[in-house]
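Hello Y.,

Per our agreement to keep a running log of every chain we model this quarter, I'm adding this entry. I've kept the format consistent with earlier entries: sequence first, then predicted structure.
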Amino acid sequence: MEVEGLRKEYVRVRRLRRRRTLAVDELDLSVPEGGVFGFLGPNGSGKTTTIRCLLGLIRPSAGEVRLLGADSTRDLASVIRRVGAIVEAPALYPGFSGRHNLELLARVDGIGSSAVQERLEQVDLAERADDRVKTYSLGMRQRLGIAAALLRDPEVLILDEPANGLDPAGIKEVRDLVRRLGSEGRTVFVSSHILSEVRQMCDHVAILARGRTVKTGTVHDVLAGETRSVFVRVDDLAKARAVLAGARMVTTDVEGGLRVEIDPDKASEPVARRPRSLRIRASRR
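Predicted structure for the entry above:
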């Protein structure tokens, strides 16, 4: 995938006045073949708009967008069968079984029933395939959506916020599945606003802010060495220092409390039980 100078502006007319909203602003992006590529940015930063432009769902205001070498605004039909995608949430029939949902899509695409069973097994849903989708957890629905996107056995898989709204168990299920798909040689493009998930799931990452790419490279190069600090207001400074020192965390005395440096590579590890006297007031980078 290659994006050069992508710009998307929405124009809305309200009370006879035009209002312009710039969703993507001169965005550049290069996605290497194979592995998992993370597209990281806060909500509203232009991730979904970029994906819609990549898939030819909307026309960019300016710039070039190429998917598998084809121009997404002119030649997408020549490569679209080699691409699978979920934009926002998967579209499923809740009253039908997971298997029936996939069979309907396969029939439209002229795909045999054997592919349906293969995809159900691939996303670990074979045992629940004949249950209605409305009985599935959010994580299971997301995996069924990924199975639908995989029906054509695509070279490129595009997933828009696949972990959004999931509980920790569901996030792990989706993360493990995405990692597995990337290891099979596919190019998996994943948008997310969750730094920890991108760190654990992806090989390469581009960081997006206000519609522009601000940093891109391997996950190790882009995110390694990043540190964060939090301000902790405490009633007993000595006790707080002792607890945090026991967890080998660096602290600095500041007015009203402590500033604690956090290594993001170890942020998910349990470090200590926080005494009730320690109250986190605010977090800052």
